[in-house]
Amino acid sequence: MLKRHSFIMTSLFAFAFFFLHFSMSSCKIYRFSDVSIPDTIKTVNVRFVENRARIVNPQLSPRLTDRLRQKIVSQTRLTQVNNDNADYDIAAEIRDYSVTTTGVSDNPGTGRQQVSSNRLTVSVYILRTNQRDNTTKEYNVSRSFDFSSSISLQQAETNLLDDMVRNLADEIFNQIFSEW
User: Fold this and answer.
1) What domains are there in the chain, each with its CATH number?
2) pLDDT, tens digit, for every residue of 112-134?
3) For residue 135, which of 10, 23, 50, 119 sits 20 to 30 Å off, Cα-Cα?
4) Please, what is the end-to-end C-alpha distance for the chain in angstroms?
5) Contact indicator for 64, 168 with CB cutoff of 8 Å
6) Are β-strands 88-106 and 79-80 bridged in parallel, bridged antiparallel, or unpaired?
């Protein structure tokens, strides 16, 4: 009986130790529910994302605007309004949309080097104004998307647009509300 009691006590101690260790651990799993919004903030106005980049993808601005609005409304308690009286006013603009070479390989037939992969980089500037306390915060988000040099930029844009919109909206959301 004493051995059984000792085994149970040791097991409970081990369980408690591991439970406390992992619950107090500095590692934190971030979820979209980990947003940080003051209780006084009830409404948000997400303005149309302007495209001020040298190269303009005409589909990116409207799709990014819609995705960001949907994400904020579905994953926060904020209500989207379309007026200047919103508690949070979010303005954004695409400032860079550029393609660079990321990979070069030797052409076996000619012995010359040729481009093998490209990278499309999109950078967005965000300004969040808290109209309750008249403060602003600025954020910059930049994401890169690789594609084969065997396809044109237009083909790459078609293939990558959904990923661009999703990744940029996620990154903007995280910057604004989780401030990571």
Assistant:
1) 36-178 (3.30.160.150)
2) 666 678 999 999 999 999 999 99
3) 50
4) 54
5) yes
6) unpaired
